[in-house]
């Protein structure tokens, strides 16, 4: 199945900064051009859930017919923010054994995260404790929408409202520290 190609354009500010938001997860090619300069391109730029990706360009004087192509690789160290997070791709979600096909059990694989002991059924729902905070501090977001059960469901033992099957999840991210105001502790993309 071929992925559809979409094209988005933006202009830089006077100081050369630019921003493309919102952007869906996926792999992108960025091209920059300006009259009197060679066109510059960066391919294979990977965007994941709630990730800020930085792509810098240096335009070289030249004719428009000339172009420079930069092949980018994923940096070993992400420097856009100081968050601590664990990301699971759809292949990992579908490969790992999940209790009751509940993808929230993947949160327990992240740094600083531990499962709950038998506490009113919450241990069976995939609930977790991150960095010593209680479960009431967990924030569940699904496709950018609040997925929190504000009244703890002791009957079913769930702190989330909707639990899609793992096959419907494209990416899953657990962020345990230094998250910004718009980031969630737990986010799934379907």
Outline the secondary-structure elements.
Blueprint: E1 26-32, E2 39-47, E3 67-71, E4 84-89, H1 90-95, E5 113-115, E6 128-130, E7 140-142, E8 145-146, E9 148-153, E10 158-160, E11 171-177, E12 186-189
Parallel strand pairs: 2-3, 7-12
Antiparallel strand pairs: 1-2, 4-11, 5-6, 7-8, 9-10, 11-12
Concise overview:
The protein is mostly beta strands. The chain contains one helix and twelve strands; from the N terminus they run ββββαββββββββ. The longest helix is centred in the middle third of the chain and has 6 residues, at 90-95.
Question: How would you describe the overall organization of this protein?
Answer:
This protein is mainly beta and 190 residues long. The chain has two domains: 1-77, no CATH class; 84-189, Ferric Hydroxamate Uptake Protein, Chain A, domain 1 (Beta Complex). The chain contains one helix and twelve strands; from the N terminus they run ββββαββββββββ. A five-stranded mixed beta sheet has the order 4-11-12-7-8. A hairpin with a 4-residue loop joins strand 9 (148-153) and strand 10. The radius of gyration is 20 Å and the shape is elongated.
